[in-house]
Amino acid sequence: MGHPYAKEKADLLTRLRRIEGQVRGVQKMIEEDRYCVDLLTQLAAIKNATHKVALSILEAHTRGCVADAIHHHTSEDEKIDELMDVIRQFIK
Amino acid sequence: MGHPYAKEKADLLTRLRRIEGQVRGVQKMIEEDRYCVDLLTQLAAIKNATHKVALSILEAHTRGCVADAIHHHTSEDEKIDELMDVIRQFIK
Amino acid sequence: MGHPYAKEKADLLTRLRRIEGQVRGVQKMIEEDRYCVDLLTQLAAIKNATHKVALSILEAHTRGCVADAIHHHTSEDEKIDELMDVIRQFIK
Amino acid sequence: MGHPYAKEKADLLTRLRRIEGQVRGVQKMIEEDRYCVDLLTQLAAIKNATHKVALSILEAHTRGCVADAIHHHTSEDEKIDELMDVIRQFIK
Description:
The structure is a homotetramer.
Chain A: H1 9-31, H2 36-71, H3 76-88
Helix pairs in contact in A: 1-2, 2-3
């Protein structure tokens, strides 16, 4: 099996380039001594966009790799352990 | 008053450049069809690092702008409204 | 299929009873006009404990219902849609 | 100074009693072997409601205790340290 996010690849790259631009934007705002609350609003937007990219990859992973492992009974438990470990990094 | 994060400016910029590098790293991983769970782990690290930068700016803002407004009784209520609005974007 | 959290049932109930006690504890603290920061610390503990119960059920659900649907090719897509919708309520 | 959440006291208690009811509701659902996704939806609602109570107390605390400490220059730094520590428990 290839990468389960093949179909979303272009979309994910576009979204990540936008996040990269937002992160550079915050650097510029700091260099220009911009107001804290504007920085914080921008950082919240970066966090939200990062969560959305993560949810898209999580969905592709579940439909692809996890479902595949379950179908073929290959390392099914390990795949679900791994999935839960990474979800735990987001739900704290 | 200038920017309350003057002292942390260099540190904040270093951390944001590192986040920018991590975001570019995820793009590269996607282009190389890397494993979903590795992408997700990296995205969780970006989220954590973004939260930490936000907490530093939030602290500087509270010690600086908010305390200043309270001392001088100038738009104290507005400053706290604004602070709460931005915190609400992180605690959902 | 029954409930996939059969094995954890007693443990989940114990943890939820503890959360219920913590929620009642905060009510008591408010009635006694206790210090805000102590209330907030207790509310953070309730949030953390709620997340942990949710992660346990999420894991049981993925190993049980989702894997089951995938094995039997029965409403596999719907199950994963449903799973993602509920995860989205926690990753915002 | 008394408790800065005096005005919201009745409202906070109502909301916490509702959360307590929701936590008991999840226990009942588990005893009845209800569907995982319904449990998770309910747990997300508990988390959301807990966050909202925390934000109300955080706001009262900032307007009350923190502003008070800043006005009187009494343990201003300690109050803000304490505030940041508790916010950090919610933004992870």
